[in-house]
Backbone:
């Protein structure tokens, strides 16, 4: 159980939280590709949710080369995403 700020209130969230080091919200495409490449444990899914449409599509083409069996998604605006 984690307590996280959501919609201006602190809420109990039934989820695990993890800290990711080596990642910057100001990273460019090269930095993001390098970040994924350096991951010791590869993820099975990446969702690209920030940036302009063209940049997201270019990044999406780069990432599958780095993921053994993973999938890369660009969710539509306001999409509902089910987390496992």
Residues:
């Amino acid at each position: 159980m984690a307590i996280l700020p959501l919609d201006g209130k602190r809420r109990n969230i039934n989820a695990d939280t993890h800290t990711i080091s080596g990642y910057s919200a100001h990273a460019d495409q090269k930095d993001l590709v390098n970040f994924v490449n350096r991951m010791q444990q590869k993820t099975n899914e990446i969702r690209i949710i920030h940036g302009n449409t063209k940049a997201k599509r270019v990044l999406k083409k780069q990432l599958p080369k780095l993921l053994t069996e993973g999938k890369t998604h660009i969710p539509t605006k306001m999409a509902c995403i089910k987390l496992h």
